[in-house]
Amino acid sequence: MRRSSLEPVPNEAMLAAWSENAMPATEHWTQYHCKLVTPMYGGGVNAAEVDEKMPIRASGIRGQLRFWWRIVAGPFASPEAMFEREAAIWGGVGAASPSASQVAVRVKAKPVQAGQLSAKSQIQGLPAYGLILDPGADPMLLKPGYAFELAVRCASSLTSQQYEEVQTALRWWASFGGAGARTRRGFGAVQISALKPVTPEEVAKYGGRLCVVPSSSNEINAWETSVKKLQRFRQGPNLGRNPGQGNRPGRSRWPEPDTIRRQTHRHARNHAPEHPVDGVYPRAWFGLPIIFHFMGAGEPSDSTLIPDDERDRMASPLILRPYWSGQKWHPAALLLPGWERRAAELRVGFGTGPFRRAWPTDPAQRQRLAQQIKPMAGRGDDPLTAFMDFFEKD
To answer: For the ranges 24-33, 52-61, 107-116, which has the lowest average pLDDT?
Structure first.
């Protein structure tokens, strides 16, 4: 029987609850002790807020495990093939009825106590570049050290391959994911000592790249080092921009601001476009949207760079966070498997067009342009490869 177009489709939380109840109660639960090692941002029903009664949600972790499963179980022959394999493990909404998930997740977490929350501005060592908010915003974050118990149950009907895929997804989540929002910039990172960390060699096997640099004194220092490397690469004096005078920042060494000035035919009297590269947006590869804010009389109005599709944002293929090697904490940067294909296809614009490719695909053109963009010169022919070189060597 075909589903009526007027019948509501279950959301992720509803489907998770339904599929968990549909699983036989005789299946075995595996328990994991988890601890936050960086502050958690958001994660509650209301955006950007920590739910003090239920800070860690099973549906959120289940969604993360499903995401990491797509990473480690791919590549897939087609979207249809991915959906078929995914639904067989995680459940899904088909033409007739939902299919039950063969994986259930439960969280046992205590309500947040008064001393476990802190305003963003009061957390020492927190890299502000990882959480750029509207002026004056100072949300409450769940401080590191908060512990909770995670239980995962796999149905006996899973094949050995499916079971191994779930276990691998769990390890990748523990190594690179987290709880709450902004996990790709290291917020809400978790440590599960019982799980073996994912190694750089494993990441390379799946088509990604993990760069781990010498250890830091602790997890917060490792996280701060990771995020500040990105800040320096994109905006740092003598690297991402020219040296400024006093408190005034210097001009960007990236081509996007001058490209916008050329497109709008607007610029301040002393800021005529001068960058040798025009018509490309390499920093879009780090994630979208990007808001360009110009200051001064005659400059363009604020401009927001977005992807050329139905979305208004593109999640970054780059993850920055502290990495536990099993012995020490390290600053780390992860490029997700499949990053180059997705980034190479990226087309961007400012809402009304024209939309164009963010970075060229022709190898000779990429190399020529990269040599004219100072942060990239000599490091790589695309912005993410160049950043990983900088992350490892500088």
So the answer is: 24-33
What pLDDT band is residue 352 in, cutting at 50, 70 and 90?
Answer: confident
Which phi and psi (to 5°) does residue 18 adopt? -65, -45
Domain membership flag for residue 236: yes
Query: Are the CB atoms for 64 and 220 separated by under 8 Å?
Result: no
In the three-class reduction of DSSP (H, G, I as helix; E, B as strand; rest coil), residue 105 is classed as strand
pLDDT band at 1 (very low <50, low <70, confident <90, very high): very low
So what's the pLDDT on residue 7? 33
Say what the pLDDT of residue 22 is: 44
Cα–Cα distances in Å, from 83 out to 21, 58, 80?
22, 22, 5
pLDDT digits (tens, 9 = 90+) for 40-51: 999 988 888 999
* Residue 284 Cα distances to 263, 288, 342, angstroms: 17, 6, 12
| Structural domain boundaries, residue 339 | 220-393
pLDDT for 135 equals: 80
Beta bridge partners of 104: 153
Residue showing tokens 């607007």? 266
Are both 42 and 113 inside the same structural domain? yes
Q: Within a domain: residue 2?
A: no
Distance CA 394, CA 392 (A): 6
Residues 187, 245, single domain; the answer is no
Residue type, 392: E
Strands (E), the chain: 29-36, 92-93, 98-99, 103-108, 117-119, 140-142, 147-154, 190-191, 209-212, 290-292, 303-307, 318-324, 329-335, 347-349, 356-357
Q: Which long-range contacts (CB under 8 A, 24 or more apart) does 162-168 make?
A: 162/88, 162/89, 162/102, 165/69, 165/72, 165/73, 165/89, 166/65, 166/69, 166/89, 166/103, 168/72
Higher pLDDT among residues 2 and 324, named by residue: 324
Which pLDDT score, from 0 to 100, does residue 125 have? 86
Give the chain's domain count.
2
Is 171 in the same domain as 251? no
Residue 44 to residue 72: CA distance in whole angstroms = 28
Can you read off the two tokens belonging to residue 61?
A: 């972790």
Structural domain contains residue 211? no
Per-residue pLDDT, 246: 65
Supply the pTM of this predicted model. 0.89
